[in-house]
Model the fold of this input.
Amino acid sequence: MELGIKGKVAVVTAASKGIGFAVAEEFAKEGVNLVINSRSKENLEKAKEKLEKCDVEVLTVAGDLRNEETLKEIFNITVKKFGKADILFLNAGGPKPGGFFDVNSEDWEDSFKLNFLSAQKLTYLFAPKMKESGWGRIIFLTSISVRNPIPNLILSNGIRMAITGMMKTLSRELASFGVTVNAVAPGYTLTDRVKQLVEDTAKREGISFDEALKKSSEKIPMKRMGKPEEIAAVVAFLASERAAFLTGQTIVVDGGQDMTSI
Ligand code: NAD
Done:
């Protein structure tokens, strides 16, 4: 399928590893120029090197997404080089685990800054030019937790619902301008961070990595975790010309785990 986005410009946050990197790589393969961000300059440069093999332009902004200066720099560097961004993929590190009494108000504020405000502020900066140009794609990374809250992950359960409410409302406001706004909600996806969690379980329970992985995947109907590229493929479709009539939706990519009917 021709996605029709060659030559467009995408901003991908938290892109040095995991789902963010897979999304950046999928865009690069489609000929999309990139502005990528993550905290570590070193990891970001490694990511840039891999992405440039696809013959696209890649700019980097190393910085914490909780920091307003990082967000402004992402905007300024993009506008200076390309004039605007056509596609935003708004991703960040995961919120701290814990139940209601395990996290305090500072944790809520920290996660709100990282997961909600970074996405809201970048959208606020970039969306006006999308509106003006009559084309844009805004895609928020949330989680399967928006369909079925996950025990012991109260920050994710709460804050990703706030993103979902913003996404849905904004999709209405931008629909007549050719700008679509959607969310992708992954289930368990085997990124380095998740591999580490599986490894920790294996050590704790005295079993092998493969046994721990099998155990962690039992609740997933496909009996395996997703691959970052499988999330990225859905994001690339949502960003494509082909998805022009699709807006205001959360697409769950979870190997069949979510049991809600619609
Ligand atoms: P990952 O740890 O593999 O990658 C996270 C990326 O975010 C890295 O590039 C890291 O450098 C960057 N990052 C972290 N904190 C940052 C900050 N403060 N500022 C800038 N960059 C920062 O993680 P992942 O598994 O790809 O997860 C990405 C997002 O998807 C997280 O929010 C996670 O909670 C969510 N998610 C993951 C899964 C899963 O199973 N992997 C499932 C649902 C949702």
